[in-house]
Design a protein that fits this description.
Blueprint: H1 2-27, E1 29-31, E2 39-47, E3 56-60, H2 65-71, E4 75-78, E5 86-93, E6 98-105, E7 108-112, E8 115-116, H3 121-131, E9 136-142, E10 150-159, E11 164-166, E12 178-182, E13 186-188, E14 194-195, E15 203-212, E16 215-216, H4 231-237, E17 246-247, E18 255-264, E19 268-275, E20 278-281, E21 286-287, H5 293-303, H6 307-310, E22 314-321, E23 328-337, E24 342-344, E25 350-353, H7 378-402
Parallel strand pairs: 1-11, 4-12, 14-24, 17-25
Antiparallel strand pairs: 2-3, 2-5, 5-9, 6-7, 6-10, 8-9, 10-11, 10-12, 13-20, 15-16, 15-18, 18-22, 19-20, 19-23, 21-22, 23-24, 23-25
C-alpha cells in the first residue's frame, strides 16, 4: 500500500512539474491587454516597397493602421506572391526599455533591426511625452512572400527583462495582426547544388547591384545591361570585417537584395537564394518574364551564344530575408535550371554573421560565451525540475524502507 502511495506521490509531482513548465513558457509572451504599454500608436501600413521610398501606402495617419487592416478583414490573398512585403510602422513605450522588435509568423518568433530613428527633435519630444521615457519608433518590415501557405503575422517587442509583448489588443487601433494566404515555397535542404564556375555548359552572368535593408550599396548608373565590372562586389567588400564577413547586427541587416542576370545553355526555371547548403525558392525571388535585348546582343556578339540560346537569359531579383540566424553563414543567389540542376552564382556568395540572442538586462555584466544562454525563466524551471526529481527519489527510498 505504501509503495502505491509513493508512486502516486511521484505522479502528482510530475504533473505539477509539467504544469509549471507550460505556465513558465506561456508567461514569456504577453499581449497588449495583459501587458499594457504606457502608450502606443500604430500609424502606417505599406507594401511592396519601403517607407520613405517607392512604396504603396495604405494609410499614414496617427493610429490609423488598425482600422485600415479591418477594412481588408485582416487577410490578403497572396497566392501569386503579388505582395512581397508588408510594413507596420508607429511608436510604442513600456515601463521598461525595449531591447528589439520583431514579429510572429504563426508560432515562429523572428527578431530584426526594426527600431526607427525619430524624425526630428520635436518628434522625439512629443512621442516621449505621450509614451514615456522608453518610447521609441518601430518600422517592422515583414517579407511576407518568403513564407508559404497561410501565415498569420503579428508585430512584437522584447523588453529589457526578456518579456515578449505581441502587438495584439482588443482595441483595434493597437492590433497589428493580419493573415497572408500565400502560394507554396520550395525548400531544398542540404542540396547538391554546384557552383556556377563548375558548370560545364555554356554560361554567362552579371551581378549588378546589391541592396542592404532597402539601401542600394552601389550606384546603378555605373552598370549597364551588358557590362558589370564588379561594382557590386567591390562595394560589398567595404562592409567586410577583418574575417571577410558582414556583421548583420552592425549594419542593421533585415534583408539583402541581389539584382543581375544569368544566361545558361538551357531554360531557367527559378531564382532563389542559398543559406549554406539549404536553397529556397520563394515569392521574394523571381526572374523577369522575358529576355532583355541588350543582354541577348551582348551574349551573341561577345560570348558566342547563338540567338535562341541567348534568349533563354533572364534578369533576376533575389531577396534574402535574414531570420534569427546565429553564427556565420554563406549566402548567395541560386538558379534552378530546366533539368533540375541547381547552381550557386559564385560572385554573389557573401559570408554574413547573424545576430546573437539578446540577454535580459541585469546589474552584472553578461559573460561572453559561445554556449547558448537559457531563455527567461529557464533557470527557475531547471531548479524546479531538479527539486522534483530529488523529491521523487526520496519518495521511492521512503517506499523501499517502509516495505521491509
Amino acid at each position: 500500500m505504501k509503495k502505491i502511495l509513493a508512486v502516486m506521490l511521484s505522479v502528482i509531482m510530475l504533473f505539477s512539474l509539467s504544469t509549471v513548465l507550460f505556465a513558465s513558457a506561456a508567461e514569456e509572451v504577453k499581449d497588449l491587454d495583459s501587458y499594457a504599454p504606457v502608450n502606443m500608436s500604430f500609424d502606417t501600413i505599406y507594401y511592396n516597397g519601403y517607407y520613405g521610398g517607392p512604396v504603396n501606402v495604405y494609410v499614414d495617419a496617427g493610429g490609423g493602421g488598425g482600422p485600415k487592416l479591418d477594412e481588408t478583414a485582416r487577410a490578403f490573398d497572396n497566392q501569386g506572391f503579388a505582395i512581397k512585403n508588408i510594413g507596420l510602422r508607429g511608436w510604442i513605450g513600456f515601463d521598461k526599455p525595449i531591447s528589439r522588435f520583431g514579429y510572429f509568423a504563426n508560432d515562429q518568433l523572428i527578431f530584426g533591426n526594426f527600431a526607427e530613428a525619430f524624425m526630428a527633435e520635436a518628434d522625439e519630444t512629443n512621442i516621449k511625452a505621450a509614451g514615456g521615457e522608453n518610447a521609441v519608433r518601430y518600422n517592422i518590415d515583414i517579407p511576407v512572400a518568403s513564407f508559404g501557405g497561410d501565415v498569420t503575422f503579428t508585430a512584437c517587442a522584447q523588453l529589457s527583462d526578456g518579456t515578449v509583448v505581441k502587438f495584439v489588443s482588443s482595441e483595434t487601433t493597437k492590433n497589428t495582426t493580419f493573415t497572408c494566404k500565400n502560394g507554396e515555397v520550395s525548400e531544398v535542404k542540404n542540396s547538391d547544388a554546384i557552383m556556377y564556375n563548375d558548370y560545364t555548359g555554356k554560361k554567362a552572368m552579371s551581378y549588378d547591384t546589391v541592396t542592404w535593408n532597402n539601401t542600394q550599396l552601389n550606384d546603378p548608373s555605373q552598370v549597364t545591361s551588358v557590362e558589370s565590372p564588379e561594382f557590386a562586389y567591390n562595394k560589398i567588400r567595404t562592409f567586410l570585417n577583418d574575417d571577410g564577413v558582414i556583421d548583420q547586427v552592425a549594419y542593421g541587416g533585415n534583408t539583402m537584395r541581389f539584382w543581375g542576370w544569368a544566361a545558361l545553355d538551357q531554360a531557367i526555371e527559378a531564382f532563389g537564394y542559398a543559406i549554406d547548403k539549404d536553397v529556397y525558392f520563394d515569392g521574394l525571388s523571381y526572374p523577369d518574364a522575358n529576355f532583355e535585348q541588350g543582354i541577348v546582343n551582348h551574349l551573341v556578339s561577345n560570348i558566342g551564344f547563338d540567338e535562341d540560346t541567348a534568349k533563354l537569359s533572364r534578369r533576376y531579383t533575389v531577396v534574402v530575408p535574414f531570420r534569427n540566424y546565429t553564427g556565420t553563414h554563406d549566402i548567395g543567389v541560386a538558379v534552378k535550371l530546366a533539368d533540375g540542376t541547381i547552381l550557386i552564382l559564385n560572385d554573389t556568395v557573401i559570408s554574413v554573421r547573424g545576430a546573437e540572442e539578446v540577454q535580459p538586462q541585469t546589474d552584472e555584466p553578461q559573460p561572453q560565451t559561445d554556449e547558448p544562454q537559457p531563455q527567461t525563466g529557464d533557470a527557475a524551471v531547471a531548479m524546479i525540475a531538479v527539486a522534483a526529481v530529488l523529491a521523487m527519489s526520496a519518495a521511492v527510498v521512503f517506499a523501499k524502507k517502509r516495505s521491509f
